[in-house]
Amino acid sequence: MATKLEKSIHREMIANGILAGRDVGRIIVSLEAGDLITFRQKGKRTRYTVPLQAVMNLALMNHLVGRYQAEIDNYNSGRRKKRPRKPTISIFNPMLLKALKTA
């Protein structure tokens, strides 16, 4: 059985973070009580906090797109006759989804 998240846990990422195409150095990740995840640059005070549910939705969306791409590759190689349908991702607000696709 998993332990409940009752106090914050802070860890430093192994890889350097990349923000807007440039290296920003080490990133500190915090899992906080209240089901939040916070990111900040090492040595900086600015924090970026996101609910864990939003991270889960993004992971689900990433999984669906990856699975669709594998099915398309299978279709293009001639092993599959029927073209797979594109996944309908309606997890986010349409305006937010459009913003994520342009990023």
In short:
It is built from 2 helices and 6 strands.
Question: Describe it for me?
Answer:
This protein has helices spanning 52-76, 94-102, and strands at residues 9-12, 17-19, 22-25, 27-32, 36-41, 47-51. With 103 residues, the chain is of the alpha+beta class. The protein folds into two domains: 1-45; 52-103. The strands form two sheets. It has a four-stranded antiparallel sheet. A two-stranded antiparallel sheet has the order 2-3. The relative contact order is 0.10.
Return residue spans where pLDDT drops below 50 for at least 5 consecutive residues: none
Largest sheet entry = 4 strands, antiparallel
Which class do the helix and strand fractions yield? Answer: alpha+beta
- Overall mean pLDDT stands at 85
Total helical segments:
2
- What is the string of helix and strand elements? EEEEEEHH
List keywords for this structure.
single chain, 103 residues, alpha+beta, 2 domains, two-stranded antiparallel ribbon, elongated
Explain the layout of strands and helices.
Layout: E1 9-12, E2 17-19, E3 22-25, E4 27-32, E5 36-41, E6 47-51, H1 52-76, H2 94-102
